[in-house]
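Apologies for my clumsy wording, but could you write out the amino acids of a protein and the tokens describing how it folds?
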Amino acid sequence: TIYELISKSKFTTKFAKLVDDHPSVVDLLNSTSANYTLFVPVDKAFEDIPDDHKKPSKEFIENALLYHIAKGEYPARKILHSYTLPTAYDEELLGGEPQRLRSSVGLGGVKLNFYSKVIAADIAAKNGIIHAVNHILVPPPYVGRIITLFPDRFSTLLLAYEKTEFVKFIHGVNLKGSTVFVPTNEAFNWLGPKANAFLFNTDKGRKYLKAILKYNIVPNATLYTDAFYDERDTKQQTEPAEELKSEHYDLPTLLGDAHISVDIARIFGFASIKVNGYSRVVVPNGVAKNGVIQVVNRVPLPPHKGHRHHHSDNVGGIEVKDLMSRLADYV
């Protein structure tokens, strides 16, 4: 079994020792009633932890161990065509759904959650597969915390949160998962200097800025490229993601009755995501404790009343009058 293999290996002694302290995890990795994929950190991965580090709680360690276990069999060839993988760690803030690992393939090979690299693949076990990784996988933090870690990409958005006291607002919203469309600094630049001066430097504009921030969050529905956790009262019926060439989602936002539309197109195992027909997701599936981050290259705005989409990709930005008319009903 997976458990027996990691217990005998001289490369995974530290992870195996932690597993031994958690009988339920031992049972899972020994169980033959279902197949699993373990991403096991090699002993060298534990060298990053400082000696004087305060020991985390038993519950935290157990959750972290479960986060290394994907539900189902994921040989390397299947990971190449996966965007996210469901783990054995069920996240309460996603409505009790499995927290996911983000997988990506680049010149350096397969990486999980941007930082942990697969260094040995496809070790077969009776109840699944083992891949060795070079960094410990930690369950992800909150959406807001992740955004603050990248000020070089998201400083304009962070300023928008500050100017509108958005953090105070969002803390009062009860969410079971969320999809957060996160505009880069360049996405705000695209609005143009007039619109930005209005939004950031006038009292009136800040109300519109707050409306945009609300519009960029889908509550209680967590949409990954290859999975959809729908915790809303009125669920949207969709087929399993793998089967389809493309999907269309029409999702409610935190901005009144304004909906945001998402199209996922698939071709030869690759997928691209567009929001409202013009904003491209440039970094998909940033997994977070309370949802998923989809980084976009244009600020998503509600379409004009009576128009489903706004296809404008013009460089000159948006007129303040146009911006105000799109958001008039919500401010």
Summary: The first strand starts at residue 36 and ends at 41.
